[in-house]
TrEMBL record, chain A:
Identification of the protein by name: Histidine-containing phosphotransfer protein
Gene: LOC111318592
GO terms of biological process kind: cytokinin-activated signaling pathway; phosphorelay signal transduction system
Keywords recorded for this protein, A-Z: Cytokinin signaling pathway, Phosphoprotein, Two-component regulatory system
PANTHER family reported for this sequence: HISTIDINE-CONTAINING PHOSPHOTRANSFER PROTEIN 4, PHOSPHORELAY INTERMEDIATE PROTEIN YPD1
Organism, scientific name: Durio zibethinus
Chief location of this protein within or outside the cell: cytoplasm
GO cellular component, one term: cytosol
Pfam family, one: Hpt
Function: Functions as a two-component phosphorelay mediators between cytokinin sensor histidine kinases and response regulators (B-type ARRs). Plays an important role in propagating cytokinin signal transduction.
Domain HPt residue range list: 38-133
Domain notes: Histidine-containing phosphotransfer domain (HPt) contains an active histidine that mediates the phosphotransfer.
Automatic annotation (TrEMBL), chain B:
Domain named HTH myb-type: residues: 199-258
Organism (species): Durio zibethinus (Durian)
Keyword Transferase: no
GO molecular function: DNA binding; DNA-binding transcription factor activity
Amino acid composition bias (Basic and acidic residues), ranges on this chain: 189-199
Protein name as annotated: Two-component response regulator
Domain Response regulatory: 19-134
Gene (name only): LOC111286435
Keywords recorded for this protein, A-Z: Activator, Cytokinin signaling pathway, DNA-binding, Nucleus, Phosphoprotein, Transcription, Transcription regulation, Two-component regulatory system
Entry similarity comment: Belongs to the ARR family. Type-B subfamily.
Lineage: Eukaryota, Viridiplantae, Streptophyta, Embryophyta, Tracheophyta
PANTHER family per record: TWO-COMPONENT RESPONSE REGULATOR, TWO-COMPONENT RESPONSE REGULATOR ARR10
4-aspartylphosphate modification, residue list: 70
NCBIfam families linked to this entry: myb_SHAQKYF
């Protein structure tokens, strides 16, 4: 187990994701679930998340194009979105979705739209970062064991 | 991190291998949940559709030990799934949601979830979910291993029917909290106790009219002060009823009476006794007279009406709609409101303790506060002017006459025919303002009874209780009696059964009087509540029940009965609302604020009461009878 510089880089990257508030400790939980039996668990979950949430985002987009806003529906989508975002530990995204829901509840269309834009941004940013992270992780090799270097 | 807590509590390594079914439409969450559960060493099956889940569960009832389900799902509401699982399979269900609102959690619990987890779920939480399975089985009389006892009855017994919801229908659910049990899924059996009361789920007891009647009779017999659950239970002699059931019912009853008495104490009692003798009369709703009522109510017809309490319009509104008659307006919950009616107030008031009865339900129970109006509601219907009532515009059948206390003294007894109405009307009425919410139970005709006009003395009990429908009918005289019920001074009017309406006056068996309006179902009024106003002595609880109030809609208070006492107090008549259960719920209305909407009910109430009297055929106390009859006749 040589101290792989990549590994170090990976660690740094990971830490910054936490420090910058992109991820919260739910992500750690995911990592802990990853083991030999489930070596790529985290990546799997995240990938699944992005796939599923893309659909939700699209739904919201479409709903926001129809006026007047159907706040209930919007709230419903966002509720789901929030659920899955929180499951992977996507902190900022989750915060935006909470805010969006608040606006929905108060019937604030403007607020919804603004928040949604913000949410999309955060979502995209996180995605990029995570993709970079996983890529590096794959290159860096498994964290725990050096027995079978990838 | 500690992944799992593999603690084998039992020989077969439970909770390891516990079979869990996980349902969540969100794939991310589902995957996570699946992984977490596997990490806990459970045997996991997942599905993203509730329908599939149900199929799986139904396919083999013994295939799973526990279900975890998301709340928010597209194909079926999580709560619905929860209920179904609980009912059909009686498995513990854990709800999962990203939304942790108290209301939602509460909803989950009331639907029978044994736990409610928030997303994102942590493994620590999942590590303990096996306890729900154990708990459920533990109280099952059978050994867990032998679980054949997975069947419902046994499983059910594990949990107390602690949901403790009171059914909207007025069923009294036994609120029995299981010791530490999670609420189990609801079990709808009636009155059926399980072997082990303390830990088992008790099916809810439905307090039917019959059962309630027995209860009231028992309480009456014992005396409200001495009525203890154990004795009541003995007297009732109903199998499968437990002391706890009775105790909780008694508690509610007491509250109801208290409420009633409070109302009764109000000066203005409306004696709505409109006992419309006939159903027609009771049918306030149908009264098209109701429209008249409008008139009465408010509109101009009623002159300033003493009633202050009811804004005529309000009343009218109520009356007009049959539905309105139902006791809707009543704040009192549909549930039985039992409260002790303190009669403190009444003593002394002879007058008026008319209580306005609200005749719930459709009928416009015309609560005639003595006002014949209601009695004749039919007549009034056309509003011909039934004006007997003095002021009462009675135009509509449904006029509700608020029975003003003063009226009561007056003549209420007035047997004058119309007089009754009139009499009352004069006096009672509303102080002149017939507008009051006179409940006019058009049907009340008969009984308008008097609600109690007796004011003076005995009558004071106005008990115009307009029993819902049936009662009214028959009891015209009852109404009278009923009215007397109200009379606070008079003895307690406890009417446990319809016939008893008249009885009230008697000194009462109850001092505390439980006024029961035993409104027979005859009264279609929904809930014609007849409330006895003050009638009961200080502590007379007024309890009306018996009415077959099933028809009683949401308790309407007919407030119109505000009886104005001569004292000038503007007692608002508390609307009596007879809730579904037939309890007469008297709603205390702030003075001057009658419940407009209740008018309707009052009318009904009155009619109901009247009816009762009529049916009974015997004037409550003679005085009443007079009233009632006279009213009847008058009309």
């Amino acid at each position: 187990m040589e101290r792989n510089p990549m590994r170090r880089q990976l660690a740094v990257m990971r830490q910054s994701l936490f420090d910058q508030g992109y991820l919260d400790e739910q992500f750690v939980q995911l990592e802990e679930l990853q083991d030999d039996a489930n070596p790529n668990f985290v990546e799997e979950v995240v990938t699944l998340y992005y796939r599923d949430s893309a659909r939700l985002i699209l739904n919201v987009e479409q709903a926001l194009e129809r006026k007047p806003f159907d706040f209930n529906k919007l709230d419903g989508y966002m509720h789901q979105f929030k659920g899955s975002s929180s499951s992977i530990g996507a902190k900022k995204v989750k915060a935006e979705s909470t805010l969006f829901r608040e606006y929905c509840k108060s019937g604030n269309g403007e607020g919804c739209m603004r928040t949604f834009q913000q949410l999309k941004k955060e979502y995209a940013t996180l995605r990029k970062k995570l993709e970079a992270y996983f890529q590096l992780a794959r290159q860096a090799g498994p964290m725990e064991t050096a027995c079978h270097p990838k | 991190m500690t992944v799992e807590r593999v603690i084998s509590e039992t020989k077969d390594q439970f909770p390891i291998g516990m079979r869990v079914l996980a349902v969540d439409d969100d794939p991310t969450c589902l995957l996570l949940l699946d992984t977490l559960l596997r990490r806990c060493q459970y045997n996991v099956t997942t599905t993203s559709q509730a329908i599939t889940a149900l199929k799986l569960l139904r396919g083999n009832k013994n295939k799973f030990d526990l279900v975890i389900s998301d709340v928010h799902m597209p194909d079926m509401d999580g709560f619905k799934l929860l209920e179904l699982v609980g009912l059909e399979m009686d498995l513990p269900v854990i709800m999962l949601s990203a939304n942790g609102d108290t209301k939602l959690v509460m909803k989950g619990i009331t639907h029978g979830a044994c736990d409610y987890l928030l997303k994102p779920v942590r493994i620590e939480e999942l590590q303990n979910i096996w306890q729900h399975v154990v708990r459920r089985k533990k109280f099952d009389q059978n050994d867990w291993y032998n679980s054949g006892s997975q069947d419902k009855p046994h499983m059910g017994s594990g949990e107390a029917a602690g949901i403790g919801k009171v059914d909207q229908n007025g069923k009294l659910n036994k609120k029995r909290k299981d010791q530490n049990e999670d609420e189990d899924e609801e079990c709808d059996e009636n009155g059926h106790d399980n072997e082990d009361p303390s830990t088992q789920k008790k099916p809810r007891v439905v307090w039917s009219v019959e059962l309630h009647r027995k209860f009231v009779a028992a309480v009456n017999q014992l005396g409200i002060d001495k009525a203890v659950p154990k004795k009541i239970l003995e007297l009732m002699n109903v199998e499968k009823l437990t002391r706890e059931n009775v105790a909780s019912h008694l508690q509610k009853f007491r509250l109801y009476l208290k409420r009633i008495s409070y109302v009764a104490n109000q000066q203005a009692h409306m004696v709505a006794a409109l006992g419309s003798a006939d159903s027609t009369y009771l049918r306030m709703g149908s009264l098209n007279g109701l429209g008249d009522f409008h008139r009465l109510a408010g509109s101009d017809q009623l002159p300033n009406a003493g009633f202050r309490s009811f804004p005529p319009s309000g009343v009218l509104g109520r009356l007009n709609t049959p539905a309105g008659l139902g006791i809707h307006g009543l704040p009192s919950p549909g549930m039985i409101q039992l409260s002790h009616v303190q009669n403190s107030g009444n003593a002394g008031n002879d007058q008026s303790k008319l209580q306005s009865f609200v005749i719930p339900g459709n009928h416009n129970a015309n609560i005639l506060l003595g006002m014949p109006m209601s009695l004749e509601l039919d007549q009034l219907q056309n509003n011909k002017g039934v004006r007997h009532i003095g002021e009462l515009p009675t135009a509509d059948n449904t006029t509700v006459f608020p029975v003003s206390g003063s009226l009561i003294d007056a003549r209420v007894a007035g047997c004058s025919n119309n007089p009754l109405l009139g009499v009352t009307s004069n006096s009672l009425m509303l102080e002149g303002s017939s507008h009051q919410a006179i409940l006019h139970a058009t049907n009340l005709r008969d009984s308008v009874s008097t609600m109690v006009f007796q004011n003076g003395n005995t009558l004071s009990d106005f008990n115009c209780i307009a029993p819902a429908s049936n009662q009214l009918r028959d009891s015209k005289s009852n109404l009278q009696g009923q009215a007397s019920l109200i009379s606070c001074n008079a003895g307690p009017i406890i009417r446990s059964d319809p016939q008893e309406w008249n009885a009230p006056r008697k000194d009462a068996p109850y001092q505390s009087n439980i006024m029961c309006c035993s409104i027979n179902s005859s009264i279609p009024v929904n809930g014609a509540m007849v409330q006895l106003g003050q009638c009961l002595d200080q502590n007379n609880p007024v309890f009306h029940r018996n009415m077959d109030l099933d028809s009683i809609g949401p308790p309407n208070f007919v407030d119109p009965l505000s009886i104005k006492h001569n004292k000038g107090e503007s007692s608002a008549m508390e609307p009596l609302v007879i809730d579904k259960e037939g309890y007469l719920i008297v709603q205390q209305r702030p003075q001057g604020s009658y419940i407009p909407d209740n008018i309707g009910p009052l009318g009904d109430l009155a009619s109901a009461i009247m009816k009762q009297d009529q049916d009974k055929g015997k004037p409550a106390d003679g005085d009443f009878g007079c009233n009632a009859y006279s009213l009847r006749n008058c009309i």
